Each structure stands twice: as structure tokens, then as C-alpha cells.
Amino acid sequence: MGNKVGRRWWSFGAALAVLAVVLAACTPPPNDPGAPPTTLEPLPEPPSSFSVLAYNIAGLPQGISGSNPERNIPLISPLLNDYDVVLTQEDFDWWVPIAGLLDFANYHTRLRADAVHPWRTARHPGPEAVGVDASSRGLLVGDGIGIMAKYPLYDERVAAWHDCFGGALPPGAADCLAMKGFRMMRMVLGDGLEVDVYSLHAEAGGTERDQELQVENFIQLAEAIEEWSEGRAVIVGGDTNLHIDAHPDSGDGQDAVIWETFLTRLGLVDSCDVLSCAHPGSIDKIAYRSGGGVVLQATSHDLPRARFRTASGEDLSDHPPVVVEFDWDRAAG
Predict the structure, then answer these.
(1) Which domains does the chain have, with CATH numbers?
(2) pTM to 2 decimals?
(3) Paired residues of 87 in beta bridges
(4) Which residues contact 11 (CB under 8 A, 6 or more apart)?
(5) Residues 144-158: what's their mean pLDDT?
(6) Which residue, 261, 200, 191, 273, is CA-closest to 234?
(7) Can you give the pLDDT at residue 169?
């Protein structure tokens, strides 16, 4: 969530606060009934390449989102089928009861309705499960992070950032209204080979406190990857909110330092750097490394904006889709 979205959140949060007193006893929505059970069965003939899409779908409630989710999310859903692995942000599958009264509660189901990916992340387990004190921060929605794949996924792990800045009133970018953080799932490529896939959404905003939290976010994520994925192949994708170009929220170059420090610590490479992509300043990124007997190599990097537009030419989200093609093989020896 950026600063413009943050301002829309402030009015939304105030309106919900009035209704919350009356409807606090409402029960939260059920788990996503379309999420299939996890299986470890490998693909019968695993291919040696796959595609990864990272996409912030702008799934905040209508009028708050930087896009038009009621119209656009059903249009996004079938477009996901051209990609083997889909990492989404602002794809909310948990919310406080009051937010569930809005059409917003249907967005997550609509996004997945026409997608054919059989393996998917489960519903967010809620604030208590990830150590978030919902009452102290005005929390309204979950992390908005999802993973879907045509390859088997298992061992899902969910984490929220240790801290946040910005609520229903300024300053900040309203980050505390969501349980932003990251999710990981192990993906079975076949032939006994796996890669750990991470989808993330980092702190937004350009204040000094936002900058401090961005540093802390990527330290926390690095520590989790070191613990969960030591020696393993890894793909990390999503909305980093790190501006490594000359952007007003770049922290005078500190965002680039945060990203480079994160990559170096974990032995990751940015697919955009590897391929000298045409859009190095995008905050939506995909990084990776080989490991665990798997050799990964990015072969193409694209922001297919034209494909993710309405018939009249409007973008389906206020973020571009990022697509990276990977080749993979068993490490020699």
C-alpha cells in the first residue's frame, strides 16, 4: 500500500470503526472451499522450464484500491493460467467481520475462480497465529499474499512483519491495517528436486520510520530464508516497495542498499539484473538462487502490461505484472 492508497484507507478505517461496535460479534468468513488438499505426488513428466508471475492485484476494497477490483479481478483470473507459478499480493483471504460485509469479501474467490492451478496456499490463519496484536493496530485485513502452482506445493509457512507504521490516520501509508509479511511453500519440480517459493509484500511509505521498517523487513525475511531454506533452491517474488531508481520514496538511495544487502546475504540474484531487463526500477521483483541439487537460471524477464488490460486499454491493477521464465536442471555430480 502506497501513500495515495493510504489516504483512502484513512477514511475507510474511520467508517468501519463506527460499524465495528455493532457488529463485533459477527463470525469471520469460512476457509476458501476451493483450496485443494496438498499432495506430494510429482508430475509424471516434469518439464525443464517453468514461468513465475508476481502480481499485486490491487485487491483493496472498491474505492480504496488504486484500481477497479470489482470489474478487474474476474478479468485477471483466466489470465493467470498462462503461468506455472503465481505469486499474488493484495489478494486478501482474511478480514475482520465488518470488512466481510463488503463485496470485497468475494474478491479472493473470484481471483481463483477461473485459475486451473491445483496447488494453492490455504487461508491466512489469522493474527494470533502469526503473533499480531490486532486490537493495538486497527487491523482490518490479512496479508493479501498467495501462491498458486501447477507443480505440487507443500509445507506452507506464514509470517507477519514484526512491526508496522501507519494506521487509519496519517502519517504513514496505512500499513498497520493489513498483516503484511510473507509466505513460503515448497514446490516439487520432479525427479526428487524442489525449490522453496516465497511471496512477499513489504512496508510502503516514504517516512523515516517506513525506511527503518523496510530495513527490518528484509532482515526478518533473510533470517527466515536462512532458517527454512538453508542450502536449498529459492525463488522470492512480490511487492518489495523498494525503489532502486531515482524515486521520491527511495530514501536517497537506501532502498537500493537494502535490496543489495538482502541479495548478497542469501546468495540470491535479481532476475532483472541477470537479464539486463528493461524495467530495473520496478518495485515488483523476482530473485532466485540455485541449491539443494537444483540449478535455476532465469531466461526471460517481462512486464506484460498490455496483456493485463481491459478491452478499453485500462490496466487491471495499479502495479505491473512481472513474469520470469526459468530453466532448471539437476546439479552435476
Answers:
(1) 3-330 (3.60.10.10)
(2) 0.90
(3) 54, 147
(4) none
(5) 97
(6) 200
(7) 75
